[in-house]
Structure formats: C-alpha cells, structure tokens
C-alpha cells in the first residue's frame, strides 16, 4: 500500500510539474506583449534536445548607469525596452522590476563590465527540426536581402518566451 | 510533409517498434526462465515433502527441459540485459524528441510522452511489486519511466525554446520526483540516475546563472546521503559528485562551496550516523580533499598574495581527528595539505613583498619539509601503536626529498637562481634548525641506538649538509649539480643498506628503483645530445636489457635470501 501511495504521488508530481512548466510559458505567450527583436543565429546542437539556433540579440549588450549599483556576473537585471523603428531596444537597466509602465524583460548579467555587458534573457535558443538549422544560417549568410528576426512574448513580470522565428517579418516555415 | 512521409513512418516504426520488439523478446526470455525457475523450485519442494518420488521428479524435469539441480543465480545477467534494454529505449525516445517533429501537435506530443512515462512506471510497479513474478523486468521498466520523465521535460523545454543556459531547470525537475521513487521502491538504478543528473545540474546551474550553486552540497548532504543508506553505489557517486563540485567551484573561485563540503563531510564523520560503503573513514578523507580544494581556491582568489591563515584551524581539526580516531588513511592527504598550505604561505610572502626567491630556495623548502616529515616519522616509531603513522610520515618525507632532488638534477642552475638573503630565506633556515632540534631530542631520549637509526641519521645529516651547501654556494653553480647528483646516490645507496640491514625487501626494492631511475636520467642527459640518434637507441637498448637483467637477477637473489633468513 505504501508503495502505491509513493507511485500515486510520483505520477501526480510528473503531471503537476509538466503542467506547471507548460502553464507558465503559455501564460506569457497568450497574455504577454509581442515584440520583435533583431538576431544573429549560429547552428550548434543540444545533446539532449536536438538542433537549435543560438540567437544573439541586439538587446544582449546592455550599458549600466551608476543608478544600477554594482554590476556582477549572475546578478538579476530588468531592462526597459522601447520600440525604435520596427525593433525593440534597451532603454535602461534596473536591478529590480520598477513600478513604471512599459515593457520590461528579466535577464541575468554575464560579465562584470558597465558598458556593453552581456545579459541573457533565456530566449537565446530556438529549436528547429533536425538538419534545418544550417538552412537558416545560409539565409543569413546569403546577404542583406533576407532578415531573420524573432517574435517574443514578454509577460508583466519580465519573463520572455519565443513565439516564432520570422523571415522578413513573416513566420518562418520549416517545410 | 508528403515528401518525407515515408521517412517519418519508417522513423516511427524504427524508433518505436524495434525497442518494443527487443522488450518483448527480453520479456519472453525472462517469463520462460521465471516459469522454469518456479517449476525447478517446486520439484525440489515436492520431492522433499515426498509428494512425488525422485523418479517422477526426474521425468517431470525432463519433460519441461529443466535442470533438477538447485537453481543457479543467473539473475544478474538478465538484470543487466533488461536494464540495457530500458536505457536504450529511453535514449531512443530522447533522440526521437531531439528530431523535433513539428507535424504532431505540441500538446499531443507532450501528453503522449507523459502518459507513456506514467504508464511505464505503473506497469513496472505491478510487475515487480503487485504480481511479484517479474521483479527484474518491473525494476527495469521503472528505470525506463525515470528516463522517459527526463525526455518529457526535454520535450517541453524544446517546445518553449528554453535556452541551453536554462537546462539546469530541466535537470533539477528531472531529479526531484525520482528521489522518493528510488528510496521507497528501493531501485538503486533510479537513485544512480538521479545522482548523476543532479551532479550535472550542479555544473549546469553555475554555468547558466553565473553563480555558485550552494544548493547542490546542501541537497546531497541533507537528502541524498540519508537516502543512499540503501544504495552503496549511489553513495559513492554522490561523494564523487561533491568532490568534483568542490574542485569545479575552486576553479571558479567560489570559496564557500569547498569549505561547505568540508564541513558536511566532517559532520557526517563525527555524528557517525551513516556507514559509507568503503568504511567510515572515507568521510574524513573526502573532507581533507575538499579542504585541499578550498585552500587552492582561496589562493587563486587572492592571486597568491593573501596567506590563508584560516586554514590552520581546519588543519588542526583534521590532524586531531586523524590521531584521535586512528584514521591513518587520511594522514597522507593531510600531509599533502600541509605542504600545499605552507608553499602558498611562502608564495604569498614572496609575491606581496617581492622577495627574490629562485628555484634553489623553492626546492630547498620541499627538501627540508621532507626531512622534517621523515624525522616526525622517526619520532613516532618508538611507540608500537604509532608505528604505522611513522611509516607514512617517512614515506612521504622520502618522496618529497627525492622528488625535489630529481627535479633539481634536471634543472640547469644559473647565477640568478642563487640564494639572496631575505625574510623568506630566514624562514627556510628555520626548517633545518627545527630538524636539528628533533634530532637532538631523539639523541637525548636514546632513540637512535639501533644500526638502522644510525644509518638514517647519517643519510639525513648528509642531505641537510648537501642542501645547505647548494644554498650557501653562491659562486659556483656547476658545483651544485655535482652535490645534487651525489645526494640522490647517497639516498639510494642508504636505502639499499637500510633494506639489507632491516631485511626489508620493500625498502631494498625502492632503493634499486631510485638508483635505476637516476642512472637512466643521467644517461639520457649525456647521450641524448649525440647527433646519431639511431646509435643512441641501439646502445641504450643493449645496455638496458643487459643491465636490467643483471640487476634484476641480483635483486631477486638478495630478496630471496632476505626471505629465507626470515
């Protein structure tokens, strides 16, 4: 009987954890503000999860002013984004989520410098069907005619989820 | 999709049907074997209770094509094969997910995999516990469910493009539900899987968040160690994970992690609530290794400019425990700890005050430290219960002294390496002074009366004088090379005599090894410079074969004589 209870609890945990993960991402995708970001992809492979493109955004390089306080690797940061033309860019970095209105994205500081320091937001990977990553890279390499960008949903708490990859502003198809 | 439909269908068949066939075949083999095993046991039982005659039992066994002898324990092989099957299927699913099939809706993919995971878990449970007839297959299916749970999380992470830096989230969520499962169902392989994934999570967390992972040692010490009481292999894996974690944190200059691991191991050693698989002393040994990591990390952090005086406290504690609890296996690592600590103190003094200190000074520190260790060993030898400690000190002392001389013998000493007096060199001269004090004590207590002790005393004095000579000789660097080589010969020959005198083949053989190594190194130094390399190799080969055979013959004769005399 004890073992049955353990099994029921484990099965419940499996479902609960899976649903929790899905819910947290779906909530951002459905309720978050959609923004478009510029990228530079490359093509590595995740041993566990297959092919993906690493996405480097313009917003990965952040300047920190004196109000921010100490800049150290691993520190949490909230960047305020503003739309400049078609794409969104960093306006200012905060150590905590401000009460202001606007779009804020939560990230982690990677380096120790105050200028052009790398910040990652958990949206730097985009998983593609096996063997399709190279094609995206080729599109980028062919020239300035085609442009790969990313549509990202940003939640109120600053958490971001990739919605889709865009080619010249239209959803990228993998067929 | 139409272009690739056949490839997809083939992939599905290959990925799902093939593992299913393998599982079916294995299941059939196990079930047939289980039935045969059951009948085999029953026949013995019926025969013992005289329900059937031996002839009838023989006939029944013949009909069922089974051996009537007591059942042999062949279960391990079946266990391994079934486990491999489970792991292979699990890996197959991970690769299947890695191929990222966008044709199947994401909710359907997730739900199917989740249901398969839970289904496998329950089937495994029923086979091994409720029915109880197929425990091996059941346990393997539980392992498969544990792997499939990881695959489910990987799939969700893939669907929502969780960045690789965030992989640590998947890894910790993978591990946590497995721990109670492993413990209550007593499944060691699930525990091993959870321990390995947690170890990878530790590194992944630090990389992903650019922060030290204090949670890992806490989780291992608080949850995994008590759970590992049932699983010896799991315990070893977690100990290895902690030590890897200590050195990884050391490399990233996260100082509190190795220190925390040291405290955790000491706690488990002192409270004595768990018995690790290879003896309780393993905890003290691992604590000492973590201490080494902390000390190195501390000095990395300060660029070797801040003497780690705090190290003194844990060092005193571990040496106290080594003696108090008679934990001899941990003595060696702590002798090394003291050497490393002492060297870093000297390095910090040199770096901060910019004292000139060349190779000669640095090597002399190791030689004098070795001599002090050897003398400490001699101090221990007069008490019977401390004799083993004495041998350990002597062995380490010998290795440090001979190692330093070998290093110096291969180094070309120049004028810039010569001694320049400064506070660091004064500390250096304190070491032989301390050595002389110990020697005086040994003489005063009349502990040097045996022939062996006198031989040791002669060698120690020779090494001390030789080292002081190379330190104080500031005019002729070449003379130092002769003295250094002479020291190696003196130590090796002393060991030969010491071995002969004490009838100890181990010491005699070590002396021979030291001497042969010396001859080879010097031979290479002299003849490697020759232009004609082919001649060098041919002559070397002949000399080594001839010399080696002669020495080996002589060595065996002497060792045999020693044993005969004993």
In short:
Chain A is α+β, with helices and mostly antiparallel strands and 175 residues long. Chain A is 23% helix and 40% strand. Chain A has one domain.
Write structural notes for this entry.
The complex is a heterodimer of chains A (175) and B (566). Chain A has helices at residues 2-31, 133-142; strands at 33-42, 45-46, 50-57, 61-62, 76-84, 87-94, 103-109, 117-120, 125-127, 148-154, 160-167, 170-171. In chain A, a hairpin with a 2-residue loop joins strand 11 and strand 12. Chain A is globular, with a radius of gyration of 19 Å. Chain A contains two helices and twelve strands. Helix content of chain A is 23%, strand content 40%. Chain A is of the alpha+beta class. Chain B has 566 residues and is an all-alpha fold. Chain B contains 21 helices and no strands. Chain B has helices at residues 5-48, 54-63, 75-98, 106-130, 135-159, 167-175, 178-184, 188-209, 215-227, 232-251, 256-271, 281-301, 312-324, 331-353, 359-380, 387-409, 423-444, 451-472, 477-501, 505-527, 533-565. The termini of chain B are far apart. The model of chain B is unreliable at 1-6 (pLDDT under 50).
The average pLDDT score of chain A comes to 84
Relative strand content of chain B: under 5%
Instruction: Tell me the total number of β-strands of chain B.
Output: 0
Distance between the termini of chain A: 51 Å
Which structural category do the helix and sheet elements of chain A fall into?
A: alpha+beta
Order of helices and strands of chain A: HEEEEEEEEEHEEE
**What is the N-to-C order of secondary-structure elements of chain B (H for helix, E for strand)?**
HHHHHHHHHHHHHHHHHHHHH
Our count of helices of chain A gives: 2
- pLDDT < 50 runs, ≥5 residues of chain B: 1-6
Secondary structure tally, helices of chain B? 21
Largest sheet of chain A: 7 strands, antiparallel
Q: What level of helicity do the residues of chain B show?
A: over 70%
Query: What is the mean predicted local confidence, pLDDT of chain B?
Result: 80
Which oligomerization state do the chains in this entry correspond to? heterodimer
Radius of gyration of chain A: 19 Å
> Mind describing the biggest β-sheet of chain B?
none
| Separation of the first and last Cα atoms of chain B | 85 Å
């Amino acid at each position: 009987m004890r073992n049955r209870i353990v099994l029921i609890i484990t099965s419940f945990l499996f479902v609960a954890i899976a649903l929790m993960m899905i819910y947290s991402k779906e909530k951002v995708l459905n309720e978050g503000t959609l923004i478009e970001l510029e990228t530079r992809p490359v093509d590595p492979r995740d041993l566990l999860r297959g092919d993906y493109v690493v996405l480097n955004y313009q917003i990965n390089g952040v300047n920190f002013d004196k109000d921010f306080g100490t800049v150290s690797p691993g520190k949490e940061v909230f960047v305020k984004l503003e739309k400049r033309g078609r794409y969104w860019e960093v306006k200012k970095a905060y150590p905590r989520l401000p009460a202001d209105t606007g779009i804020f994205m939560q990230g982690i500081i990677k380096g120790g410098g105050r200028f052009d320091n790398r910040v990652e937001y958990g949206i730097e990977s985009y998983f593609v069907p096996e063997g399709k990553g190279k094609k995206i890279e080729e599109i980028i390499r062919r020239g300035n005619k085609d442009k790969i960008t990313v549509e990202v949903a940003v939640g109120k708490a600053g958490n971001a989820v990739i919605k889709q990859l865009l080619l010249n502003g239209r959803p990228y198809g993998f067929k | 999709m139409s272009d690739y439909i056949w490839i997809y269908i083939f992939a599905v068949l290959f990925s799902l049907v093939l593992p299913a066939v393998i599982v079916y075949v294995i299941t059939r083999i196990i079930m047939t074997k289980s039935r045969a095993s059951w009948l085999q046991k029953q026949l013995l039982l019926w025969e013992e209770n005289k329900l059937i005659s031996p002839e009838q039992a023989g006939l029944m066994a013949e009909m069922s094509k089974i051996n009537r002898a007591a059942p042999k324990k062949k279960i391990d092989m079946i266990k391994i094969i079934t486990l491999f099957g489970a792991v292979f299927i699990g890996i197959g699913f991970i690769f299947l997910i890695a191929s990222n099939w966008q044709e199947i809706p994401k909710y359907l993919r997730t739900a199917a995999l989740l249901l398969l995971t839970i289904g496998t878990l329950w089937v495994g449970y029923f086979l091994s516990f409720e029915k109880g007839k197929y425990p091996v297959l059941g346990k393997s299916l539980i392992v498969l469910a544990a792997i499939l749970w990881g695959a489910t999380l990987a799939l969700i992470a893939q669907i929502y493009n969780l960045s690789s830096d965030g992989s640590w989230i998947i890894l910790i969520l993978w591990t946590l539900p497995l721990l109670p499962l492993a413990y209550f169902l007593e499944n060691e392989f699930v525990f091993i899987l959870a321990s390995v994934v947690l170890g990878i999570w530790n590194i992944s967390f630090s990389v992903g968040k650019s922060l030290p992972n204090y949670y890992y040692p806490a989780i291992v010490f608080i949850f995994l160690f008590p759970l590992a009481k049932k699983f010896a292999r799991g315990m070893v894996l977690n100990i290895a994970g902690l030590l890897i974690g200590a050195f990884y944190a050391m490399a990233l200059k996260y100082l509190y992690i190795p220190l925390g691991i040291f405290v955790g191991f000491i706690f488990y050693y002192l409270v004595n609530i768990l018995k690790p698989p290879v003896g309780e002393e393993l905890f003290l040994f691992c604590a000492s290794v973590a201490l080494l990591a902390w000390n190195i990390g501390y000095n990395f952090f300060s660029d070797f400019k801040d003497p780690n005086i705090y190290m003194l406290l844990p060092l005193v504690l571990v040496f106290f425990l080594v003696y108090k609890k008679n934990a001899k296996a941990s003595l060696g690592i702590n002798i090394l700890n003291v050497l490393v600590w002492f060297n870093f103190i000297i390095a910090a003094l040199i770096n901060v005050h910019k004292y000139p200190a060349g190779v000669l000074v640095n090597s002399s520190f190791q030689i004098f430290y070795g001599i002090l260790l050897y003398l400490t060993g001699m101090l221990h030898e007069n008490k019977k219960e401390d004799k083993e400690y004495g041998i350990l000190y002597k062995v380490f002392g010998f290795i440090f002294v001979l190692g330093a001389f070998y290093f110096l013998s291969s180094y070309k000493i120049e004028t810039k390496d010569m001694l320049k007096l400064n506070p660091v060199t004064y500390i250096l001269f304190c070491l032989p002074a301390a050595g002389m004090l110990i020697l005086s004590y040994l003489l005063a207590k009349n502990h040097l009366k045996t022939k062996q002790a006198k031989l040791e005393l002669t060698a120690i004095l020779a090494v001390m004088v030789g080292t002081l000579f190379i330190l104080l000789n500031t005019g002729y660097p070449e003379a130092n090379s002769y003295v250094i080589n002479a020291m190696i010969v003196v130590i090796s020959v002393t060991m030969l005599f010491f071995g002969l005198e004490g009838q100890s083949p181990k010491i005699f053989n070590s002396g021979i090894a030291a001497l042969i190594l010396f001859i080879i190194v010097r031979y290479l130094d002299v003849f490697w410079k020759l232009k004609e390399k082919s001649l060098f190799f041919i002559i070397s080969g002949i000399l080594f074969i001839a010399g080696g055979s002669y020495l080996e013959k002589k060595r065996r004769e002497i060792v045999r004589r020693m044993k005969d005399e004993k």
